[in-house]
Amino acid sequence: MAMHVSNACFSVFSHGRVQRIRAIASEDFATLKTEENNKVKLGNSDLKVTKLGIGAWSWGDTSYWNNFDWDDRKMKAAKAAFDTSIDRGITFFDTAEVYGSRLALGAISSETLLGRFIKERKQKDPETEVAVATKFAALPWRLGRQSVLNALKDSLNRLQLSSVELYQLHWPGVWGNEGYIDGLGDAVEQGLVKAVGVSNYSEKRLRNAYEKLKKRGIPLASNQVNYSLIYRLPEQNGVKATCDELGVSLIAYSPIAQGALTGKYTPENPPDGPRGRIYTPEFLTKLQPLINRIREVGDNYSKTPTQVVLNWLLAQDNVVPIPGAKNAEQAAEFAGALGWKLTDDEVSELRSLASEIQPVIGFPVEKL
């Protein structure tokens, strides 16, 4: 499944914290909230979303995030992340039916939480506009187009919405993929979604999905894939170029490498939980020269490493990063990636430095 949540907090006693506070304070968030140029069209669809979204994988999850525990304190922090994102002009939220799945003991569905947050926000501010993206899990026993519609309706019930802006196939199925694409088209024609996309699709699968929907006059809006400064497989396997060619937006999950690019983690302080098995002390040792340079570049703009690497992705064009926010502090920091731009030389330099680092293993279905 899409691994797109990262912990962007900095320790209280660090250069990074001073830098982060300065970066957040310097943003004119009122401008970010009101400017129409803060939005982009998703592919050739009519849907417009903010240039940067928020991933909600960690909300309610007890199988990968939150130290395998979910409590009221974490729920309040997630709610604060949602509200702060809206306050800062970020209104695009990505979730999925398997995030915080009932199959995980003690978990609360991310969709349920997002729906609750939206409802509570609109009770206070009825004019609030939120663009919701969620995903269909291509489980082996799900066959045919109707399975997509059934799953979507269940998602809508959890979200307490009559429709969503974007519905995506979370990964290619073992079989039934033709029916899944048909189901996406049906969802559009029935008015249950404004746009449709895929996730973790290879170049070949992307082209097939695009052509199948095109025959019905429906644009494929997006392909959501793992993409960051240190995980650039979409550039290497033709997915990014194909998205650009076909007019399909690339939604980047894990844009800050689940926190590895924030500067928070060091060989002496690796992430805990499952992330610690991915971003090991050995990997973090090799990563430090790049982190140091990212920090130096950020100093020139009064920006944090997190804001620099998100801006690097925005500089690739046709990319909408969706970092995961666990709390208000992270959400506010993410907003500081907007409204400025790295130079072409800085973009090239960071890519060159990152090329010296062997990437971690991604979600295996990318290569199906």
Regarding CATH, which class of one domain?
Alpha Beta
Percentage beta strand: 5-15%
Architecture per CATH nomenclature, i.e. the level-2 architecture of one domain: Alpha-Beta Barrel
Query: What percent of residues adopt helix (DSSP H or I)?
Result: 40-55%
Please give the count of helices: 14
**Averaged pLDDT:** 87
Radius of gyration: 19 Å
Euclidean distance between termini CA atoms: 14 Å
Shape: globular
Which sequence of strands runs across the widest sheet?
3-4-5-6-7-8-9-10
Q: Predict the CATH topology of one domain.
A: TIM Barrel
* Biggest sheet details: 8 strands, parallel
Would you tell me the structural class of the helices and strands?
alpha/beta
The CATH homologous superfamily of one domain is termed: NADP-dependent oxidoreductase domain
- Weakly predicted, low-confidence segments: 1-35
Number of strands: 10
Instruction: Summarize the helix and strand pattern as letters.
Output: HHEEEHEHEHEHEHEHHEHHHEHH
SSE layout and pairing:
Layout: H1 15-26, H2 29-34, E1 39-41, E2 48-50, E3 54-55, H3 72-87, E4 92-94, H4 110-124, E5 131-136, H5 145-159, E6 164-169, H6 177-189, E7 193-199, H7 203-214, E8 220-226, H8 233-236, H9 239-246, E9 249-253, H10 275-278, H11 281-301, H12 305-314, E10 319-321, H13 328-335, H14 344-354
Parallel strand pairs: 3-4, 4-5, 5-6, 6-7, 7-8, 8-9, 9-10
Antiparallel strand pairs: 1-2
Helix pairs in contact: 3-4, 3-13, 4-5, 5-6, 7-9, 11-12, 11-14
Subcellular location: Plastid, Chloroplast
Pfam family, one: Aldo_ket_red
Organism: Cannabis sativa (Hemp)
